[in-house]
Amino acid sequence: MQIAAVHATPVNIPFVAPYRFSYGSIASLTKTIVEVVTTDGLSGFGEVADGDRSADVEALGARLVGLDPLDLDEVERRCVPGYAYSPWASVLSAKRAFGGVELALWDLRGRLEGKPLYELLGGAVRTEIPLTEYFSYRYPGPDHPGEATPLAVARTCAAMVEQFGAVSFEGKVGTVDVEDELVMVREIRAAIGDRRLRLDCNGGWLVETARRLIPRFEEHGIDQWEEPVEGYEDLAAIRDVTTRPLSCHVANLPLAKALGAPDVIVTNLNEQGGIRRSIEFIRGCQAAGIGFRFHSGETGIASTAYLHVTAAIDHIDDASQTLFRWYADDVIEGGPYVPRGGFVSVPTGPGLGVELDRVALERCHRRYLAEGAFPGAAGAGYGQSFRRV
C-alpha cells in the first residue's frame, strides 16, 4: 500500500452570529481539510488551522506519492526542512501544512488497524474531555439575535447552564468600553454562580492598562487570563498583579521558563508540525511545570483530534476551549459536537472515529469561495478595528 494522492479543500465554517473581539469581528472560520488516499482506495482525514493552505498541502502531497503512509519519519523528512530558518521558504508554513497531512496519516493508520487514535497514542487516561463554554458580544446572525448588552451575554451563559449543564466559561474582553465589560462580567458571575470563569483579551491591552484593570475584573472571581497583553515580556511585566494563571498562544518553552510567564500555552496540532511533535512539546511543558490546552475554532476533524490527544496525554488536565455551540455548520457527519455537563466523549471508532460529510464539505467549500478567508461581520470587518489600549 502506498500514498496515491493528497487532496486539500479550503472551507468556511460559519457562526450562528459573528463574534466580536479585540481584532474586530469574525463570521466564519477558514480551514483546510486534508485527505490522503492510498493505492488501496482508503482515505484518512486531517486539517490545517490557519486558513487556505490548499496549495501548500498539495505541493507537499506531490512529494509523498508512492511512499508508505505508515512511514511518518520519511513523510516528515520529505515535507519539513531540517533547519530552523531559510531565506527561500517558510519553515513554519511547512510545519503547519505537514501537521494536516500527518493527522490524516494517523487517521488512516487507525482505520487500517481498527483502533481509535487515542489507543495508537498509548491508551486513554480519560474518555470524557473537559471543555469550556464561550461568550462574547456578538452581532446579529441570519437566525440569531446576537448579544449587544452585558445582560444579553449573561443570559446566554445562564442558558448554557440550564440547557447543557455547563461548568466553566471563557470569553472576550478588550472589545468594547471597559465599564460595559465590567458590568458584563459581573452579570455573568451572577448568572453562572461559582462556576469557573476565564477572560481572553487577545493581547488587546497595554501593560499599564492591564495592571490597572486586572484587579477590577478579579473582584468578580476570575480563574485564568488569556493574553491580557501581547507577548511573553509583557506577560512577565504583569505577573505581580495577579495570582491567576496567564496563558498565551505563542509556544516558546525556554522563554517561558526564563520569564516566569505564561503559565499555560494554548495552541493547536499544526504549530509544532503534527501530533508526534505536539506530544513532544506537551511533554516538555510538563517537565517545565507549564500547563497546556487546545484553543478553539477548528472543524470537527481537528477538534476530534484534540479530543483523542487529550484522552491520551495526562498533562492536558484542564478544560480546552470550544466554540462548538456557535457553529452553524461542520464537515463531519453528525457535527457539530454538543458538550453536556462540560464534557464531550472521545469517539471510539477507528482512527479519528468520525466520517467526513462530503456534501457538507462541498457546501463549506462553496462558502469559502463566496466569502473569502475569515470574513468579518457585514460592515464591521475582521482585524480593521484592532488597537491595543
What's the name of the CATH homologous superfamily of the largest domain? Enolase-like C-terminal domain
| Domain unit count | 2
- Find the count of extended strands (DSSP E, 2+ residues): 12
* Low-confidence regions: none
Average predicted confidence as pLDDT = 95
Order of helices and strands: EEEHHHHEEHEHEHEHEHEHEHEH
Report the sheet with the most strands, covering strand number, pairing sense and barrel closure.
7 strands, parallel
CATH class placement of the largest domain: Alpha Beta
Question: If helices are DSSP runs of H or I spanning 4 or more residues, what is the number of helices?
Answer: 12
Strand order of the largest sheet: 5-6-7-8-9-10-11
Examine the coordinates and then state which fold CATH places here, giving the name of the CATH topology of the largest domain. Answer: TIM Barrel
**Which secondary-structure class do the elements indicate?**
alpha/beta
Radius of gyration, CA atoms, in whole angstroms: 20 Å
**Percentage of residues in strands:** 15-25%
The rounded distance between the terminal residues' Cα atoms is 56 Å
Which architecture of the largest domain would the CATH scheme give at its second level? Alpha-Beta Barrel
Which range best describes the helical content: under 10%, 10-25%, 25-40%, 40-55%, 55-70% or over 70%?
A: 25-40%
> What is the molecular shape?
globular
